[in-house]
Amino acid sequence: MPSPFARVTADDLAAFRMICGDGNVLTEQAELDIHGADETEDLCFPPEVVLRPETAAQIQAIMRQCSRRRIPVTPRGAGTGLSGGALPVNGGVSLSLAKMNRILEIDTSNLVIVTQPGVITQVLQEAVEAQGLYYPPDPASRGSCFIGGNIAECAGGPRALKYGVTKDYVLGVEAVLPDGSLIRWGGKLLKNVTGYNLAQLLVGSEGTLAIVTEITLRLIPLPKERVCLVVPFDDGQAAARALTKIFMARLTPSAAEYLEGAAVRCAEAKFGKSFPQSDAEAHLLLELDGNDRAQLDKDATSGRCAVGSVKR
Ligand SMILES: Cc1cc2nc3c(=O)[nH]c(=O)nc-3n(C[C@H](O)[C@H](O)[C@H](O)COP(=O)(O)OP(=O)(O)OC[C@H]3O[C@@H](n4cnc5c(N)ncnc54)[C@H](O)[C@@H]3O)c2cc1C
């Protein structure tokens, strides 16, 4: 069956250079190989060209050109995805958001941040924490992934337990549709309850619906104190049940992660570091947060009692 897509021609490359500038149109094989892979194991689908636009207007022009010519476009954040979303499986354009990496506003009156998609998640978190605010979603890749990639994958980490995941913080988006039109949904308001929730439609859409060019995220006050616990168990089932017991003891950990003993021992061997009581069958990694240190220490101690059959 013939491909429904067109190949990128010299005329297309000339058009892309007019739109983004020569330096932002990459055709070297090394670049194509890098942009043909993400962290999904052993897969590589090199694009025909990598584009690095710097503005939403440039993305609109790229999408108009590609839509008219039927050239496939795959948006790309930092390429840390584990589900192959950034792989240009049909060739065409890898559209990198790496150059749209500015935080546009931290609004401390409305407790929101407005950002471009190419900002590294940890950079965004540290910027708001410097203002006493908090953006909790914490994928383990936060030191390298982009906030735009987090939106497209609805990323989350251990703090999902108390604080939720990316979708719980998205108040508004600006995005470019495949035909090049620019749309804005939502914004700096919490109670946005009428009409379709189109911002949320883009969350988790893996770049299949639109290219996100600006994001408005809800922030919360930064808790002053944190306590971390590593609780070893003789039995994995008991570790899982312990979490319910902790909730029933009226404690809500700010983060929780279940660690299998075998995985802990593998990590020790690989990284040459030791983990407390690594001979245990399982561990719960728990974090409590709040503003009162004495209360947190008390909660942490009573939490340990609540979990029941700990190893030692
Ligand atoms: C070591 C490691 C640990 C990880 N830990 C976690 C974890 O704890 N929790 C978790 O949820 N994930 C985790 N991940 C997966 C990954 O980091 C996340 O999915 C992250 O959100 C991807 O962001 P990215 O910028 O790298 O996006 P990419 O991998 O570049 O792209 C991911 C998807 O988003 C789309 N996309 C990117 N930017 C845009 C945009 N601006 N507009 C539209 N679509 C876009 C792409 O087309 C693709 O479909 C981990 C990955 C690694 C390698």
Q: Give the CATH architecture of the largest domain.
A: 2-Layer Sandwich
Fraction of helical residues: 25-40%
Provide the β-strand percentage band.
Answer: 15-25%
Poorly predicted spans: 308-312
User: Which class do the helix and strand fractions yield?
Assistant: alpha+beta
CATH topological fold name of the largest domain: Uridine Diphospho-n-acetylenolpyruvylglucosamine Reductase, domain 3
Strand line-up across the major sheet: 5-6-10-8-9
Give the overall silhouette.
globular
Tally of structural domains = 3
Please describe what this structure looks like.
With about 300 residues, the chain is α+β, with helices and mostly antiparallel strands. The chain folds into three domains: about 10-95, Uridine Diphospho-n-acetylenolpyruvylglucosamine Reductase, domain 2, CATH 3.30.43.10; about 105-220, Uridine Diphospho-n-acetylenolpyruvylglucosamine Reductase, domain 3 (2-Layer Sandwich); about 225-305, Alpha-Beta Plaits (2-Layer Sandwich). The chain is built from ten helices and 14 strands. It has helices spanning about 10-20, 30-35, 55-70, 120-130, 145-155, 160-165, 200, 235-250, 260-270, 295-305, and strands spanning about 25, 50, 75, 95, 105, 110-115, 135, 170-175, 180-185, 210-220, 220, 225-235, 255-260, 280-290. Strands 5-6-10-8-9 form a five-stranded antiparallel sheet. A four-stranded mixed sheet has the order 1-2-4-3. It has a three-stranded antiparallel sheet with strand order 12-14-13. It is globular and about 70 Å long. It starts with 9 loop residues before the first helix and ends in a 6-residue tail after the last helix. Mean pLDDT is about 95; it is low at about 310. Bound molecules: flavin-adenine dinucleotide. Flavin-adenine dinucleotide binds near residues 81, 82, 145, 149 and 212.
